[in-house]
Design brief:
This protein has four helices and twelve strands, in the order H-H-E-E-H-E-E-E-E-E-E-E-E-H-E-E. With 265 residues, it is of the alpha+beta class. The protein has a ten-stranded antiparallel β-sheet with strand order 3-12-1-2-10-7-8-5-4-11. A two-stranded antiparallel ribbon has the order 6-9. Helix 1 runs antiparallel to helix 2. The N and C termini lie far apart (48 Å). The relative contact order is 0.19.
Length: 265
Amino acid sequence: MVSKDQRQRQLAREKFLRQQQRREAARSKARTRNIVIASVLAVAVLGSGAAYAAGAFKSDDKSSTAGADASASPSPSASASEKPEPKMTVDKKAKYTFTLKTNRGAMAIAMDAAKTPHTVNSFKYLADKGFFDKTKCHRLTTEGIYVLQCGDPEGTGAGGPGYTIPDENLKALGKAGKDGSVTYPAGTVAMANTGQAHTGGSQFFLVYKDSKLPPSYTPFGTLDAAGLTAVKDVAKSGVAAGGQSASDGAPKKGVDVTTATVTKN
C-alpha cells in the first residue's frame, strides 16, 4: 500500500522530470532556430553568429550570450553546435573547493576529483573564466524535491557552456529502491540534466532537505554548514509569484552569485 506521502513524492519526481523534458524540447527548437539565424547572418556577423551557435561564454564576447544549453545533447561528444569538453587539467587524485560568494553569504562546496574528475575539471575550467560570476540561482523547489538550482548564466534554465560532460559517481548514493529512486541527502550538490544520460553542463542543484530522485544526477560535492543554512533560509521564503507552481520557480529571496572560484585543497 503506497502512503499519501510516498505518492506525493512520486508525483513530485515525475513532475520534475516532465519539466526537464519540456525545457529540453524548447531548447532544441531554439537551438535549431539559432543555427539557421547564424547561417543567414554569416556574411554580416560571422564572428558573433558563429559564436552564439557554438555556445560562447558570456565572458568571451560581451555582445553575445551563452548559446545552446549545456544539456543539449544526450552525448558528451561534440556536434556542429556544441564544443568539446574541456581538456583535463585537474589533479585526479586531489580534492577541490568550489566557493560561491553570494548576497546570502559564502557557500563552500567540497569536491573530490578522484570520484568525479570530469565534473571537477569542468567547474574549474568554467570558474577560471568567470562563467558563474554575476549569475543567479534561478529555480527553487519546495515540495517533494527540495533543491535550489544554479549555474545558468541566462537565469532561465536554458543556459550553459555549449558542451556536455559525462555522468559520474551515480552509484555513490546506493542502490535504487522499488520506486527507482535514491535519497540525495541534504547538503548534496549534484548536476542538473535533461533526464537523459551524459547531458550535464554548468547547471547544478543544492539539496537543502533529503530528496528522493532517480540516481541519474551526478553527485559531485557537499555543501558546507554555512551554505546549507543559507539555502534553507532562502527556501523558507518560498517561490516567487509567476513560477511553474507555488512550489517550483524562482526563489522569492533571490540568490545572486558575485564570484565563483575552484581551488585545490
